[in-house]
Amino acid sequence: MGTLRTGALTRRRVGTPAADLEYAVLDVETTGLDPREGARLVEIAVVRVRGDGRIVDEFSTLVDPRAPIGGREFHGIGESDVLGAPRAEEIVPRIARLLSGAVVVGHNLDFEERFLASELVPAGLPEGQSGLCTLRALRSQLDLARYSLPRASYLLSGDWPTGQHTALGDARACAKLLVEMIGNAPGELRYTGPAPRFLQGDAPEETPVRWKPRTTSGAGGWAPRGSWSARWRPRELDARLCGGAFRDAEREAAEQAARRETLVRERWALAAGLTGGVAATVAGGLLLRMAGAARG
Predict the structure, then answer these.
(1) Same domain, 182 and 220
(2) Which of 6, 142, 280, 292 lies 20 to 30 Å from 151 when distance is taken between CA atoms?
């Protein structure tokens, strides 16, 4: 079983209405890009939000990586900032409680999943929770020039997200993007992944935390949901084809696959209609013959 069992959003009549679920929107700041090369968590945040936009809970803390801190030019975190911060294993119970019963969400969730697998799962975080990548979801559903979290937020709502490159600021921006996506879709969005799991164990009354100086505590919020000026795809793409850099060639390949799938489905529908018509004609003839025999 993988760390996360990732699903997708669709406008088709399958799966669970996305507005009915709860989501644990996750973001991390790290000392590098790849845990296989020694990169470690240095900050983590989770925003628990309902599909209708109500924020249920938030958690954010710096994490002591017990290693040299790289990437300061991006996240602004230095060695002195993490003095007294909890280690990864100390926050696992709280993270598990926030993820329990929710779909785990991230913008490029593959990145967050690698660090869950390398640090939190070995410390006791259960595996197999359901997941959703908003980067893949946006690429699947909307035709945008750029899909990064800040640029997509600006293109869709006209506002740049605040608190960029803080775990809590980016988690809040991702949660807002998800809620607005659900609310602005031209038709009901549904989640097609496995049902969220309820994880065992209770978090202690007090989980150790240490905030980055420019991180605000307490449950955040956002302005009332506005209307997006966005081009929703007439044919949604397969989210599995929407990862990676998604350059022109990759985008075109995903769009071609969607066109082929649409053509196949149309042919199946036509064949089913013709088969149904033939069956109705045969059944009608049989009924007429039976009625004639009864009169005779």
Answers:
(1) yes
(2) 6
